Amino acid sequence: MKIWLRILGGAYIVMGGLNFFLFMFILVVYGGKGGIEAIRVEEYVPVIGHLGGWVLYVLLGFSAASILAGVGLLALTAWSGRLALFLSIVDVFIFPFGTIIALPTIITLFSKQGREFLFPALNSNWNNNKDL
């Protein structure tokens, strides 16, 4: 179980890094028109300016959350499992790479050992369980 969680942690770090580089690419190519200067662009294209800016910031937020969840999964902390579960529910709809990471995350964290990882207060044998 610990090996699966660490593999998922590495996958979340890689996907968060790729999303961050996508954010930077969009920011550089479009010169910030859809991102940083979205408020000023509304004079010219009101809907696309605001929508592009918010989509770009949501992408940045999800990439930071993915990296944070990945680092936490590598350290085997329970909060990171909850964050990864939330991200996987959102990532299921991002075809194909989000789905590829989301399905193993959901399967792993909803297994019996995964539930013990998510809620360590319910099971005091987490550190003593050799099956993990």
Could you list some keywords that capture this structure?
6 helices, mainly alpha, single chain, 132 residues
What this model shows, in words?
This protein is mainly α and 132 residues long. The chain has one domain. Helix content is 72%, strand content 0%. The protein has 6 helices and no strands. The protein has helices at residues 2-29, 38-41, 46-74, 78-91, 97-109, 112-118. Helix 1 runs antiparallel to helix 5, helix 3 runs antiparallel to helix 4 and helix 4 (78-91) crosses helix 5. The termini are close together. The model has no long low-confidence stretch (mean pLDDT 80).
Structural class: mainly alpha
Query: Taking all residues together, what is the mean pLDDT?
Result: 80
Helix and strand succession? Answer: HHHHHH
Q: What is the tally of helical segments?
A: 6
Write down how many β-strands occur, each being a DSSP E stretch of 2 or more residues: 0
Q: Uncertain segments of ≥5 residues (pLDDT<50)? A: none
- State the helicity in percent bands: over 70%
Rg for CA atoms? 18 Å
User: Span between N and C termini?
Assistant: 5 Å
For the sheet with most strands, the description reads:
none
Strand-residue fraction?
A: under 5%
Shape: elongated
As for the number of domains, it is 1
